[in-house]
Write a structure and sequence with these properties.
nine-stranded mixed beta sheet; 17 helices; alpha/beta; single chain
Length: about 550
């Protein structure tokens, strides 16, 4: 074959999600998809999944949905949501996953900003949309994803998902799509200002899935049973549904409000080998498993991300449960995966505690991505594990702008690079470690204090469940650290005792001036500690 012909063939082959859908049907037709719902567990396979996606696309076409149209989902991790994940982009439409934990004002904002024409809603979430429906003039129809008859609702016009599919043919001629077409749309959680939209093209999601399937990524294969506890309404559930379908893995979808008992039960019953979620999920599960006995021997890998994973949590899973936590880092703007904290072969003979400390870092950048770490003057910092700077990244699945927001785009994207807002160090092994978010650093007397380092140290105390540190104004030092701490049930601990346990780890000026014990830390829509809410709470506290 001539070089010219070979080049033409490669350009004609488009990297689209339709490839994954067709591959799952042809190569893994009997592989199971297990979904937990309000009525219990449902099971079907990739062959049946494919047919339902065809029915969905025929129904969407009949409703007037075409290439480029945005369609929203307001749903949990279920098989119907997975059908939308493929049905919408494979017909040329854009899948907009609406974060169900945003405020009512933000929910209305993102639906209107995305210009969603249809909205698919899980039955138990209907009241939240009813609350804002009057503010959604662009939504032409609501589809409720319920098991049986439609529930009573003020939404109109409205129809049932199952009735929609039942009336549609199960054969669909998928169009030939360009890999540069938008496939998905997700919004940041809006911790500062309005949420920002990020468009994912077919090419971005295709290449992102390949990176996750690598051994240096998540290493997902057909032999795995995967369970994404990270919500499908947040950054593509970290790409796990797409990667699992691509390789033909069995998928377990945990459904609405999964609690530690349901999570442990699904891992035990379905023999889950790979699971992923934010630290608060694994903290809650650990607390549950300390009281209950479940067989989790099938679980070979836990991926934990969304915020820095405490070293104490990784150690507790290793020592108490014999389970491996791999820390991951990424952003909505990155589709979202960026790095994974797996160990190099050369580290296999390191002492166990040294290995543990390395695993507590955010790890190596995924193949295909590039990074720079810059100081305040814009110069690159040395990779010595000590000098910190802001992390910039670029690559084939990194966004280059925000959707319909040129002002915000100009602040975060420049010359093909994304300014992540994360302050990091890079060690001599090239492993990333998040020091803090730029907005969460405490600058006291001209010196920087890492809130993440303090939080990890506080959560290492055996009586502490969760801890978050914020900066509060100080007349003398400009800012000082304030710690909010949640103790484990039936535990008592004074501020002096807690601070005394970490004194040897930090310079004296790093130690929080105040420790406030509270019953529960506020969380964002994706399970991170909500530091904006804590700052508002701090403003109401009595002045010392």
């Amino acid at each position: 074959m001539s070089a010219g012909l070979s080049s033409q063939v490669s350009r004609d082959y488009q990297l689209t999600l339709t490839n994954f859908l067709e591959r799952a049907r042809r190569f893994f037709p009997r592989q199971e998809i297990v979904s937990r719902g309000a009525q219990g567990i449902s099971r079907y396979n990739y062959r049946q999944f494919y047919r339902r996606v065809c029915r969905l696309d025929n129904a969407l076409s009949a409703l007037g949905i075409g290439q480029g149209d945005r369609v929203g989902s307001f749903a949990w991790n279920t098989h119907r949501h997975l059908e939308l994940y493929f049905g919408l982009p494979c017909m040329g439409a854009v899948m907009h996953t609406v974060n169900i934990r945003l405020s009512p004002e933000q929910i209305a904002y993102v639906i209107n900003h995305a210009q969603d024409k249809l909205l698919f809603i899980d039955e138990d979430l209907v009241p939240a949309i009813e609350q804002v429906a009057a503010k959604l003039p662009g939504v032409q129809r609501y589809v409720i994803m319920c098991e049986g008859e439609l529930p009573p609702t003020s939404l109109a016009p409205v129809c049932s998902y199952e009735e929609l599919l039942a009336e549609a043919p199960e054969n669909y001629d998928f169009p030939q799509l360009d890999e540069g077409l938008p496939a998905g749309l997700a919004y940041t959680s809006g911790t500062t200002g309005d949420p920002k939209g990020v468009i994912y093209t077919h090419r971005m999601l295709f290449l992102h899935s390949f990176a996750l399937a690598l051994a240096g990524g998540f290493g997902i294969s057909e032999a795995d049973t995967t369970m994404a506890l990270v919500p499908m309404f947040h950054a593509n559930a970290w790409g796990i549904p797409y990667t699992s379908t691509m390789v033909g893995a069995k998928q377990v979808l945990p459904g609405p409000h999964p609690q530690p008992e349901e999570i442990a039960g699904l891992i035990q019953t379905e023999r889950v080998s790979f699971a992923a979620g934010v630290p608060t999920v694994w903290i809650g599960l650990l607390q549950f498993l300390e009281q209950q006995n479940y067989d989790l021997s099938s679980l070979q890998q836990i991926v934990c991300g969304g915020s820095a994973v405490p070293l104490s949590l990784i150690k507790a899973y290793r020592d108490k449960l014999g389970l491996q936590i791999h820390q991951a880092w990424g952003m909505t703007e990155m589709s979202p995966a960026g790095s994974v904290g797996t160990l190099k072969r050369s580290m296999s003979d390191w002492p166990a505690e040294q290995q543990l400390a390395q695993q507590a870092k955010q790890g190596l950048l995924l193949p295909g991505l590039e990074m720079r770490v810059l100081d305040e003057s814009g110069c690159e910092v040395p990779w010595d594990g000590e000098t910190s700077g802001e992390l910039l990244v670029r690559g084939p699945w990194v966004a280059r702008e925000y959707y319909r927001d040129p002002e915000a785009s100009a602040q975060r994207f420049a010359g093909g690079w994304l300014r992540t807002g994360d302050v990091v160090t890079v060690d001599r092994e090239s492993y990333l470690q998040i020091v803090d978010r730029t907005k969460d650093l405490v600058k006291s007397g001209g010196e920087w204090i890492s809130s993440v380092a303090l939080e990890n140290a506080l959560m290492a105390h055996p009586q502490v469940l969760e801890a978050a540190v914020i900066a509060v104004p100080d007349e003398r030092w400009s800012e000082r650290p304030l710690a909010y701490v949640v103790l484990k049930p039936d535990q008592q601990l004074s501020a002096e005792e807690l601070l005394g346990s970490i004194t040897a780890q930090f310079p004296k000026f790093w130690l929080p001036d105040e420790v406030t014990f509270i019953d529960e830390l506020p969380k964002t829509g994706v399970g991170k500690f909500n530091k904006r809410a804590l700052r508002q709470l701090a403003q109401q506290r009595p002045r010392r």
